[in-house]
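thought: fold this chain, then report.
action: predict
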Amino acid sequence: MFLIKVLVIGAAGKVGRLIVEKIQQTDYTPVAMVRSKDQKEMFEKKGVTAVMGDLEKDFESAYADVDAVIFAAGSSKETGAEMTIIIDQEGAIKATDRAVHFGVQRFVMLSSMAADRPEAGDHSIKHYLFAKHRADEYLKKSGVPYTIIRPGPLTNGEGKGRVFLSEHVNGGESISREDVADVLVKALKHPKAENKSFDVVEGDTPVEDLFRH
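observation:
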């Protein structure tokens, strides 16, 4: 599988910006999907192609000539349950539908730890976990080659380049946004990551060595 252009949905977010930076360090070309002209200009000043798209409206044109998608969009805690459904659930489902339509070769989803078992998650974010769960399950059934990454609580610290990745992790260990971004980008090309779902937290395995065994 030879990937050229990678559409980053949610590129202007905290993890999204890091994803774009990580892609720039590879042989791939990032395409940042943003909602405002200011965001578009910000990426273009960095030499990154940016396209306009709004998950609440239409964003089909963003898929032109892209080979893969990383979905890193998400509502914030301040926006409430309604926006969580609109962005984290329905936005991700629409993004999956467009990936099917355009024949995308790989779809990497940024999910959340416990999204595979939302009924057992923290009550205060249960609506968020169920939204993520529905989006993840929809992607699995879509037929698009996928990887789902479910990180533990996110921190803003500098990435350590070492993580623990497994189908299930018990516990609430954290992980830096930078390391999550790195894992998402690494998942793009490895056959052993295809059609798999993983929890990821801070650990001892170098990100470079993920998916090799």
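thought: worth noting. The radius of gyration is 16 Å.
final: tokens above.
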